[in-house]
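Troubleshooting entry. Yesterday's outputs looked truncated, so today I'm pasting the complete records for two proteins to confirm everything comes through intact. If either block looks cut off, that's the bug. Protein one:
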Amino acid sequence: MRELSVVIPNYNGGAYLGPLMESLRAQSLPPAEIWVVDDASTDDSVSLLRSRFPHVRLLINEKNFGFAVTANRGLRAAQCPLVALLNNDTVIDAQWSLEAIRPLEDPSVGSVATRIVFYENPDILDSAGDIYLPGGIALKRGSHRRAEDLPAEGDSVFSACAAAAVYRQDALAQTGLLDECFEAYYEDVDLGFRLQHAGWRCVYAPAAVCCHHVSASYRPASRRFHFLSSRNSEVVFWSNLPAGLLLRCLPEHALLLSAQWLDKMLHGHGLAFLAGKLAFLGRIGLVRTKRKEVRRLSKLTDREIEARMAPRPFRLLLDAYKARRHPLGV
């Protein structure tokens, strides 16, 4: 099973699409099809694709819907048994597709997290998959660290960052696609949670290297980023943790929220963070619906789900904070 569809959600990514398309053209295992879903761009993205890359299958949204809706439109259109999501501001190594699908030879693997590095400094990781803290926060594993600091062989992670991920279509058919109510941020973690509940593994593929112009498409300094991340992280926490584990994690959740709020206040994003938490209260009905779906999917015990999350959350948060301030740990 080596046939791969590639889906690229795009909004005003004309400056980046050319290098990405050239890197896809240079793959040792070329994708069987490439879908670009344009989210009502106002730049030259569409004309560039039509003139320079006519082989690309192009879908155009009539208005701007955001990442989750746009990505899902491409995922529904993809015809191959394996499908990759790539951000429009990425460039992939020539062996990326070959190495990214290799872990899926194991039938227990439902998704693959690839090695995402900073375009400006490819020795430094942006993400080696996601880890999830039981207190309700997802972190990029290995972010701002050297790639060689992580295991050379692929190992299990909690979920794949949708900037450069591969999914088994059979797994997505079982769990559903990205939740479009999220718009953007945490939607890939939420999908990862459903895949975990359904018993699928997510594996890190360190030899599948993707260079990422981090935040070129979505600006982390914007109010919208902090609002959506704050709201959506609550939806993930309250929707996906089994009831017993949820109750045990509430004190930890409260402590993590306090630490987050203080950090956001110090960096000028406190109001957006609080607005996101208040907006979550309007999503209680969504949480109830999602919890029913999780119970339907779940094949793992509470203890097995907890074992797939990260222990020692405050140590991990401290390490992540230090890594952002001093990327090489100095």
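Protein two, checking that the full record survives here as well:
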Amino acid sequence: MKNSSMDVTRRGALVQLLVLPALAGMLAVGATAVARADARVDLKYQSTPKGDQKCSGCVLFAPGKTPKDDGTCKIIAGDISPNGWCTAFAKAPN
């Protein structure tokens, strides 16, 4: 008696070994992007400073081309104002 569930073609094996893990990786990247987008709301990001705390003085901030240009953040997606602030603010060492 032939058990068809045990018949594996070379192509089927390659799909399982290569394509499926790649798809899983793409899904993980997509989930990370969604989490970063939600971080803007969750971390109460605002485009104005809070007292003397502002993004340009935070360890998570990557500056733009000039000090006045928007930069990026390691945990919040999209453009970030150097004068912005969020609850994840962590003062950069001098």
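Both blocks look complete. Sanity check on protein two: Residues 8-73 form one domain.
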